[in-house]
Amino acid sequence: MSLGQGFEPVKTTIGQMLISRKYQIPDFQREFTWGKSDFQTLAEDILQNEKKSATLFLGTFMFIGLQGDDVVKITDGQQRLTSIFIFLACLRDRLYEIGKDNYGDSIQERFLCQRDNENALQATLETNATYEYVDYILVNKNPYYDDENFGENNDEIQKFKIAQEVFKRVLEHNSDQNDEEYFKWLLSVRETITKAFAINLFSADKKEAYLAFESLNSKGQPLSDLDLIKNRIIYTAETQNFIAKFVDMWKKVREKNADLKQKIFVEYQPHGSIDQWLMISVLKSNNILDDDFLYLENYQLYKSFKNYFTNTSEGIDSTYLKIINQFKVYSEALHEIYFPNINNWHSQTGKRIYRDFGFLSLLLNSDYINDVSLLDMLTELFMVAYHKNKTTHYFTSTLLLEITDFILGSCILFGVVSQVSQLIIGQRRKQVFFRQSLKNILHELNLASSKAESYASVSNLKALMFLFYRANKNNNLYTNIHFTKKTGNDKIKIYENITTKYILECVFLFENNVSLVDPGMSVEHIVPESTQKQYTNNLGNLTLLEDSINSGAADTPVSDKIEKNYSQSRNKDVLQSVIPHFQNIIRQEEKIKIDERTRFLESKFFEYSENLFKI
């Protein structure tokens, strides 16, 4: 399609655009994505043109609708028009602040709002996720709402707030002038914006507009693969009912994922965003992408998606619905890891799943990645298992627990998350074999459609891990695990802490059939910690106590801890295994006793692992 074919081009000013009609953001549009540097660039363009008394050109805007319509939908130009709208709102506020209310009202009623049939003011720009924020805060200044009511987990509103911060600072640029000169400068800025011109392209053909959106992005950030996938789903869907359901679910999932953007582990990957990484996992699970797919070049993901759905003979809406439902559940799976809620897992099995989530959160979020493709597969394995557990009657929580244990065992055994720790396995051949075997099992689990097939896949997982526990049993894998206090952002130390805690939890569970799952439990030294006794950080000298009791124990002698602190713990029955070993310890015996207990814990952990993963 050549640019402009079927479109009605009109040259106009921004002022005329805002006075003439209302603008809506259609469902297929991406979110408001501009950031601080984009807002600064726009502001600099405005100020430079104001200084030169030059006319600013703001590019081409494309709309669904005709020039004479009261309402049109923005196909191209959303980022620029929204940013200009915010800039004018900030200019209005600045005029109010210096006592020029008439001029502020003029901007409000001419450019930011239009009166409806009942003479009420309606915002000229009608957004989706940000509509109430734009209406209540940016435009109408509703007294029952303030800025704090909005935006905590909404990426778009956060962008609105950043834009306002940037534009407010820009408009304070010449405030050191005398009042009259400053006022004239603000009016000049207003003229520069409202007299800036653009080329508007109008078309009533919705499909043509969708295709134009796919191929044209005249100014601003490039469209992402996910923007294009969303657009294609909407314009190729068969029913309006599906489109409404899809848009609502898509919006909720992407807003929810905004919570994870500072915590999630995909920063190291070339997938671009959590949402795109999740979509890649979903499409792999449905055999739409090859297992070896790596997101490297622009629009590779979208091209694969488009090719598949151009050639598929299945019902489009039902296939799309399957994908978006899976996208939602995969998002829930990541949230379950990063924001686990013990109240959601009441049974003993459930509490152990909750424990695994806590460990997975730190392991998957580590900065020290040894094998990205292996970590990808382990995470996809968890999401597939969670999806099966949520959507089938045959996949049980017991199977989910076995898979989370498998993932944790794999991370620890293969040193997936740490290039520096002692846990790295040097034999590359083992990792290659493990990766290929895991890929085959992940494929099996994806295709499982019965209880028997699910159990068969999980049995294969258990056999695989059992094989490698056996192969590495004598490699002193865990003897070198030691406790390091958390300081700063050192992810290695956090990793060692969580590995220690996981091993102790598994051994106590195995020995006593009691779980210590509790966010308030922390690692405690038995023999007092000392810089002169490095061996006191070894695994054999560590146990778990409630945080409050742990802080009271401090660096006191073993006998005092046993008498005053251990007896207060609700897990004192578990601590009975510790007390006899260290009850009457003397200084010369410390290292010997710690080494003995280290070997004991290592042996018990292997026993636990073999019991868990044997066929």
Q: Which structural traits does this protein have?
A:
two-stranded antiparallel sheet; 615 residues; alpha/beta; 57% helix; 8% strand; 10 strands
Description:
The chain has 615 residues and is of the alpha/beta class. Helices cover 57% and strands 8% of the residues. It contains 24 helices and 10 strands. The protein has helices spanning 14-20, 36-52, 78-97, 101-112, 131-139, 155-171, 179-194, 206-215, 225-236, 240-257, 274-285, 300-311, 316-338, 348-364, 372-391, 397-414, 428-447, 451-471, 491-512, 547-553, 558-565, 572-575, 579-582, 590-613; strands spanning 8-13, 22-24, 57-64, 71-76, 113-115, 121-123, 125-126, 197-203, 521-525, 542-546. The strands form 3 sheets. It has a 6-stranded mixed beta sheet, with helices on both faces. The chain has a two-stranded antiparallel sheet with strand order 5-6. Strands 9-10 form a two-stranded antiparallel ribbon. A hairpin with a 6-residue loop joins strand 3 (57-64) and strand 4. Helix 3 (78-97) runs antiparallel to helix 4 (101-112), helix 10 (240-257) packs parallel to helix 13 (316-338) and helix 13 (316-338) packs across helix 15. The chain is globular, with a radius of gyration of 30 Å. It starts with 7 loop residues before the first strand and ends with a helix.
